[in-house]
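FYI - complex with magnesium ion, inputs then prediction.
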Amino acid sequence: MASVKEVYRAMSLIVILDDRATNRTIFAQLAASLEPGLDVRTFGAPDEALAFLADRNPALVITDYKMPVMDGAEFTRRLRAIPNGADVPVIVITAYEDRSFRLRALEAGATDFLLYPVDHQEFLVRARNLLTLGRQQQIIKRRTELLERELEESERTRQVEIRSSRERLAQVIDTMPAMISAVDTEGRLEFINAYQAAFLGLDARECIGQDATCMFGSQHRERMVSLDRMVIESGRALPSYEEEIVDRKGNTHVFLTTKSPLFDKDHRVVGVLTTALDITERKQAESRLRYLAHHDPLTDLPNRVLLGKRMERKLARRRYGDHQFALHFLDLDRFKGVNDVLGHHSGDQLLQAVAKRLRETVRETDLVARLGGDEFAILQSPISTAEEAAALAQKVLDALSEPFVFHGHQIELSACIGITLYPSDGQDVEELLRNADLAMYRAKDEGSGTYQFFVDDMNRRAFETARLESDLRSSFANKHFRLHYQPQLCLRSGKIAGAEALLRWNRPGIGEVPPSEFLPLAEEIGLIASLSSWVLQEVCTTAARWQSLGLRTIRCAVNLSPITFRRQDVYAMVVSALEHSGLDPAWLELELTESILLENNDDVKATLRALQALGVGLALDDFGTGYSSLSYVKNFPVDRIKIDQSFIRDLKTDPSNTTIVRAIINLSHGLNLGVVAEGVETMEQCTQLAADGCDLIQGYYVSPPLPAEDFGRLLELDTTEPLAGIVRA
Ligand code: C2E
Ligand code: MG
Ligand code: MG
């Protein structure tokens, strides 16, 4: 910026205009005396002065008013019109009587006046003041201009910086190996990154403003809408969940997806941001690791861990009347000797050969595991009698007694087997394994190549059973049974769509006993018949009462044991309960287990068809704990699958469950069956299930089973708003 000195130097020109030469000389002398270095120019004619000033920058102009061709006012007006004349101070010299002239001069833009005849002192004072004022104005003007320029410049750089940082951010978002998109509350796509567009084979620009569901196929679309709705309604991010998405080449990838709300400045939800990380490779690595953790590297057989898991799954949801299972504990005789003589390498090869033979001897539904060393186990399932277990044990011993041919040697091998039966010989994995081990040692005592069943303390058991039996009978007579109802929540509407009735026994002197502890005996002693028809009657009456109270109409499910199905006329029982209560059959559902269908019994089939024709719903309970094959379901009139809670429980920790659950849901939908997930306890499980397209959830996350009155109150709450449970976290 120009310094003050420079401005002073640049503004040293004083122009004097007067038609009288004497005046010009006097004024010029006076002006020149103002300060050294001034350039004073005089003119007699205004035209000449204007021509001179056209490309100069004067510091002060002094003009006479009265001149022959052009007066001082007109001169000033013209001066103001040229570029450098706009701001220059102009002094007009007028006579006393010239008031009207003064006014004209003012209007034309004069800065000050001097009276004629001019007082020299006054001339000097006014001229100096105006000279300084003009220069100061110049300085201020220049500073202002400079400031403006600087401001403009910095604004321009700021804009450039913003643009480039936005571009950089967009670049980062675009190149990140994750799908990132945002929708508004109406579900219109507001943003989609390049990675996602490329993955799905879309043109990002064309998609913007469209309904976001245009990105995916119809199944994925529905889930996306319901998950986005959960975010918009709750104003909270969903826990991340896994989903499978097919790319434009048709390959399936697994993504870990997160959805979170976008807010405006008033903290209102204006959209949903979705980020999805491709974890396909991680999943593959995980499944490899899982395989290694569950298998014996030498024989490739399942190991103790996997055997335990399989047994647990069977134990978890087992009902009496379903098929039992047997656990065989097998130990090779004198294997150590073989190892010592032939060496470890051959020992290993022999174990592999044994594994192969065992696998060839059992059925497809049985599981052979290596527990370690020369110990193996066989989970034989299902069985109906102990004789079947004995037959398999003998078959295995026979298979092993065939000599193994090895590098030209013949090796004779034998084994001993201990057998436990579920449920009679133990209630959990540990107990069953321990007792099978004990039985195996008894077999060793008998001699090589033998098997033994586990033998329990029979008296104690008989006594306890007798007491339980008498308590059960008197409780039924005294009405010590109650029903609790557990809601089933529709993931699409967020409302309660159904309830499962669960039996509760208040055992005198002991308190509430879970159904798993008394139902087996109730079935054995035949009490199940009266119990089942009481449950049916009670449920239908309660459901009809809720409807008559104007509560939302929901479907009520009743569990039926396989024994009831085999031994009783379920159709007649159902018709009677419906008639007595006046309940429309559409609101009743029966829960059956896989084993009923597996029997492939024509009578059962006929009963199921008749029930369905009546309008009663049929659900397949505890799905996944048995044969987990939907192929047989096709031949039965089933409406709904209930995925067993053991799969839901480990949804996050056991990734194979995520895959199984997703497959069950997809297959069920393919067969036009609804899906209920049981045992849903957390928001994470709920989100994952919604992402996988599950229809209904049941579990503590929504509510525990409730007495009828409490359930009625829950229904009242549910009539207007979507149940808070779904967005409860
Ligand atoms: P189910 O039909 O699979 O019933 C679901 C079981 O899961 C119930 O156990 C319920 O209380 C429990 N449950 C529900 N949500 C959760 C959860 O979030 N986490 C966990 N850990 N558990 C949850 P409950 O009431 O002990 O019943 C056990 C079984 O007894 C039932 O399994 C059903 O097979 C049988 N049962 C119950 N009532 C009847 C009945 O009236 N008749 C017959 N035949 N069987 C019944
Ligand atoms: Mg059930
Ligand atoms: Mg169940």
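The first helix runs from residue 4 to 10. Residues 500, 559, 591, 621 surround magnesium ion (ligand 2) (CB under 6 Å).
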